[in-house]
Amino acid sequence: MTLNFTKMNGAGNDFVLVDNRTQAVALTREQIARLCDRHRGIGADGLLAVEPAQQGADFRMRYYNADGGEAEMCGNGARCFARYVNRLHDFTLPSVRFETMAGIIGAEFQGDRVQLRMSEPHSLALHEKLSVQGRDLTVHALNTGVPHAVVFVDDLSHVDVTGDGAALRYHEYFAPKGTNANFVGITAPGHIAIRTYERGVEDETLACGTGTVACAIIHHLLHDTPSPIQVQVRGGDTLTIGFTRQPDGTFVDVTLTGPGDFVFDGTIEVA
């Protein structure tokens, strides 16, 4: 099978995108993993497929991690998905709504940047004491479409993201599905920097959109920092997180704004 694809990146988080509106493409988990392989394939943190909507939105977004497993949501991927869909329509769409496993996501276009209206966060846990590689860490958790663990640190540059990240990702507290692991440093009032170990990629990535949302909201809860909050990711980009906190403590109108850049188009033979 010859597959047409587009390579994109959102703040350094890179993706393979395919147009599957006809649903003629049926990739196996192993094929997706090979496409995402950086030595034997295209190379990406995940694959995104455009499919027909099933629940009344404009499109359906299918997201697969680099290991080929399907995941609920990806914030940086969703921005790329939105721009890719807009390009399929000659950049005539002012906005788009698409279905994910985490709910319906809305996107508005602001030039080369995309503002996503995210699903409402849930499953908040603060100040959990967990043993990680023989050390007790204070861990916070929030599901922003996918589960995230959040740890605040004094020196972000010296964090063992791979070791501590993997230990958190597979920690029994987050069993059986596991979690993404984020490490956060406060750089200025309303500004944080993060590094993320991503479940499914099983390594540190240059950015994680849903991770920036989780870290920003938990930063707000711990330090009463008002919306919006600026989050710098490992790749160097800064993403903007907005939200409204309700009197009952829930969060609505959660937005994630950042780039979704085209890299190249290509074709590849898929065995």
Comma- or semicolon-separated keywords:
Diaminopimelate Epimerase, Chain A, domain 1, 18-stranded mixed beta sheet, alpha+beta, 271 residues, 4 helices
Give a concise summary.
The protein has 271 residues and is α+β, with helices and mostly antiparallel strands. 17% of the residues lie in helices and 46% in strands. The longest helix has 15 residues, at 209-223.
Helix % is 10-25%
Question: What CATH architecture of the largest domain do you see?
Answer: Roll
Q: Report mean pLDDT, rounded to a whole number.
A: 97
With helices defined by DSSP (H or I, 4 residues minimum), what is the helix count?
A: 4
Describe the 3D structure.
This protein is of the alpha+beta class and 271 residues long. The protein folds into 2 domains: 2-119 and 260-269, Diaminopimelate Epimerase, Chain A, domain 1; 122-258, Diaminopimelate Epimerase, Chain A, domain 1. It is 17% helix and 46% strand. The chain has 4 helices and 18 strands. It has helices at residues 29-36, 75-88, 161-169, 209-223, and strands spanning 2-10, 13-19, 46-51, 59-65, 70-71, 95-100, 103-110, 113-117, 122-132, 135-143, 147-152, 180-188, 191-198, 203-205, 229-232, 238-245, 251-259, 261-269. It has an 18-stranded mixed beta sheet that branches. The longest helix has 15 residues, at 209-223. The chain is globular. The relative contact order is 0.18. The model has no long low-confidence stretch (mean pLDDT 97).
